[in-house]
Design a protein that fits this description.
CATH superfamily: Ribosomal protein S16
Number of strands: 5
Order of helices and strands: EEEEHEH
Shape: globular
Distance between the termini: 29 Å
Helix content: 10-25%
Strand order of the largest sheet: 4-3-2-1-5
Strand content: 35-45%
CATH architecture: 2-Layer Sandwich
């Protein structure tokens, strides 16, 4: 199974302000599907946006062959 590191939408949709989890998930699993592990959180509604990612877990998944989505890659560069 190919594993991707991507965002998973969580929280309420009031005023279209969502929070996201950074998760390791199977490539063919739906965005809201069951994830393998939660790696961090992203809250774009705050100013400045809050990004918290566990780098140790992220590196472990990358060593196992997981690939990051473009959005997660840009978030990792910011921290």
């Amino acid at each position: 199974m190919e594993v991707r590191i991507r965002l998973q939408k969580v929280g309420k949709s009031a005023n279209k302000h969502y929070n996201y989890r950074v998760v390791a998930i199977g490539r063919n699993i739906a965005r809201q599907g069951r994830n393998l592990e939660i790696l961090g959180h992203y809250d774009p509604s705050r100013k400045p946006a809050v990004v918290s990612i566990n780098k140790e877990k992220l590196e472990q998944w990358i060593k196992r062959g997981a690939r990051m989505s473009d959005t997660v890659r840009s978030l990792v560069k910011k921290i």
